Amino acid sequence: MDFTDINVLIEAVQRIVERLRTEEADKAPLLNEVHPQHRESARNLLHYLTLRTLDLRELQGELSSLSISSLGHSEGYTLSNLLKILRLLRMLTGVAADDLYPDFRSPLDYKTSRQCLRDNALQLLGQHHRGEGSRIMVTMPSEAAEDYEMIHGLLLAGMDIARINTSHDSEEDWQRMISNIRRGQETISKHCLIYMDLSGPKLRTEAVFPAIGKKQHLRLFPGDSLQLVPVAPTTKDKHALPQVLVTLPEIFGDSQPGHRIYFDDGKIGGQIISVQADGIEVKITQAAPQGSKLRAGKGINLPDTRLTLPSLTAADRTHLPFIAAHADIVGYSFVRHPADVADLQAELKQLNREDIGIILKIETKDAFENLPMLLMTAMRSPKIGVMIARGDLAVEIGFERIAEVQEEILWICEAAHTPGIWATQVLEKLAKKGNASRAEITDAAMAARAECVMLNKGPFIVNAVATLDDIIRRMEKHQFKRKSNLRPLGVARQFYLQTNMQNEAE
Predict the structure, then answer these.
(1) Do residues 410 and 450 touch, judged by C-beta distance below 8 A?
(2) pLDDT(71) > 70
(3) Which of 11, 264, 436, 506 is the 20 to 30 Å CA partner of 446?
(4) What predicted TM-score, i.e. pTM, was given to this entire model?
């Protein structure tokens, strides 16, 4: 064996460990601000982020060729894994494998990091009945305020967390929903947490002019132009561009020519041509060949625009006392910056609900890019989690990147021992139409790597919950996060059964 090559590997790993030590010392003030419960998790997150600033492909390949534990699955226990690799490499050279870093250690290893994540998930998301499998969160439709039987069916099918979106309905409706959920809990002796989403500064179309047909829409083609306006037009001008009234006129101060704009979850795309105080001209660059309909109430995304809107809106502050009085978890919509997190934490402190779980919804480009600092700030609270809100996020970062980005979010959450929620369009066709596509089933199986999976409402939602419950039960036997549990494979056993029978027959 060429010891020179191994010594090169040893030096490379030592340089990484020293870099981790330097970065930890430099970031000590930041680490000291987190809740004591999250101190080691924050350290590990910092270690993992430091590690992932490096190109590790060649080093990982060399370690794998020596059958030494590689760097690829060390999210939850980065420092301990590096020190174990270093110890094994030194043993291969015949040098005593004494610890080179007695003053730079971590209590987190594979088992303890896994337990830390379990404990954090239990505190935030509550007990469930699937072993280590994901919890199931279900968005409550408006009917949940009146239809107790639907709630009862959801609980029996496997719902663990009920999601109430404060963008819809009223406090009276929410109260009736909660009463039905509590009644169902008592009836079947099953715990179910209440999760309430803050609406946040969601930019939507409020009305379209001139509207076509009874359902009030514009039909847009590539090459068309339209105008976003802050107030509804008072007169009709047949020569004017089609106009779209928006819910947040504040965007007129942030948008710039050349910025991209998307409507209705990315179904319609355009580019901003000009920005005036009374209107933003948009040229449509993406729509169906036969035209795409744009109606009121559809989302608008501006991925290139840095919005100066506060994430915690006036409406959110109005609803927070109700949420603090009734919810177990609050979802923070359109959070973008660490100061946004601190703002919500201050409001919850005023309401004596510092104990409430906080979910950071990652649905904008800013939120994804700022995720590490969002987590560090959120770690000042005892119970935190992250939702991968793939709908708006995919539009913001580009549909072609969503698979890559959702993996990165899961890795960072695992490094912080922070529970993750996989959301948007999970089994959506099944919930809305009654039958699932093959791609949906595969997506749901992938979602089982998160600590919770969120389903949206639909007429077949009870069936969707039961199907997801079955998928999670199957997948949790096979994997934890990205790591295989190495459960015996039925196909392998069948192979040996068949070959043994064949040999006996011969």
Answers:
(1) yes
(2) yes
(3) 264
(4) 0.90
